[in-house]
Write a structure and sequence with these properties.
- The chain is α+β, with helices and mostly antiparallel strands.
- The chain contains six helices and 17 strands.
- The chain has a 17-stranded mixed beta sheet that branches.
- The protein is globular.
- The two termini are 16 Å apart.
- The structure holds 2,6-diaminopimelic acid.
- The site of 2,6-diaminopimelic acid (API) has 19 residues, from helix 3 and helix 5.
Length: 310
């Protein structure tokens, strides 16, 4: 889609602008408060999510850098107004936007999960260093100890029993559980059991839920029910979580292509324990955030989970 306005306008003008983007169909809204404005309340975030013009899976809100050498302090919100410490697709989006505005190709962002370095080559080739995976049960976090988080036991009742045995769990800035299957990932009713697992008592901070089909040592297909957002066309951190979990189980090599409903991401787990995620970012349109917020002051119906397939 055509870029209608340069990013510099977004950064300098009042009233507050938003930019609607996507990373592999993962719907992202970017708002920049580095020159003032904000913070947003959870009800503001939900209002932006509920407006058809700005419906998103995650909202990336840029605040003034609080650590020297970083470009911004980034808060990440889900559609339900909850915060996530990590969003892979959204991180590619903000770097692409900033590349268009500044011409720079390297960025460092601070999130609640730490520092993220991003390298931009072109709109299809943006790499984020997502940091180190954490596999300890308390890091995920789980509410009870498991010695081996490659395969945990999760009591969930008699649904889709074959896949619900021995999933892997990992924290890649946010918590993930990955269920392994050799059937097509879209043959499961993830919209039905995703929320049950997201809110299972084993996950005190809730969890992102992924179905993964390891097709070869370098090809994995996934589908994800996102904590606080529901079914999405792509989840970058889920791709990272799945890739490193498959590698840890010795099912895959250290560099894989993870294909999501929205398309592929390349994930590499480096020898120095970093997860590198490479994929695209796209601008859809931009607009006036204040107009969206005032249009949504009236009570709106609750969100329904969505998966915007073509
Ligand atoms: N879509 C995002 C992840 C959002 C995670 C969020 N749902 C949570 O952890 O609460 C991504 O590309 O990584």
């Amino acid at each position: 889609m055509t870029v209608l306005h340069p990013y510099s306008r977004v950064m300098t003008s009042a009233p507050t602008r938003y930019v609607k983007m996507n990373g592999l169909g993962n719907e992202i809204v970017v708002v920049d408060f580095r020159r003032g404005g904000g913070p947003l309340k959870p009800q503001d975030v939900r209002a932006v999510a509920e407006n058809p013009a700005t419906g998103f899976d995650q909202m990336m809100v840029l605040h003034k850098a609080r650590t020297p050498g970083t470009d911004a302090f980034v808060l990440i919100f889900n559609t339900d107004g909850s915060e996530s410490a990590a969003c892979g697709n959204g991180t590619r989006c903000i770097a692409w936007l900033e590349h268009l505005g500044t011409g720079r190709s390297e960025f460092r962002y601070e999130t609640r999960a730490g520092l993220l370095d991003v390298g931009v080559k072109n709109s299809d080739d943006i790499t984020v260093d997502m940091g180190q995976p954490r596999f300890g049960w308390a890091d995920v976090p789980l509410s009870e100890p498991f010695h081996d988080t490659r395969a945990i036991e999760l009591q969930i009742g008699p649904i889709e029993a074959p896949i619900l045995h021995s999933p892997s769990v990992v924290n890649v800035g946010n918590p993930h559980v990955v269920f392994w299957t050799d059937k097509p990932v879209d043959s499961y009713d993830l919209a039905r059991f995703g929320p049950m697992i997201e809110n299972h008592p084993l996950f005190p901070e809730r969890v992102n839920v992924t179905l993964a089909d390891v097709q070869s040592r370098d090809t994995i297909r996934i589908r994800t029910w996102e904590r606080g957002a529901g079914l999405t066309r792509a989840c970058g951190t889920a791709a990272c979580a799945t890739a490193v979990s498959a590698m840890r189980k010795r099912l895959a090599d250290r560099k894989v292509t993870v294909t999501l409903p929205g398309g592929p991401l390349v994930i590499e787990w480096t020898a120095d324990d970093r997860i590198l995620m490479t994929g695209p970012a796209e601008i859809e349109h931009e607009g006036d955030l204040d107009a969206i917020l005032s249009a949504n002051r009236a009570p709106a119906p609750p969100l329904v989970p969505h998966e915007r397939l073509p």
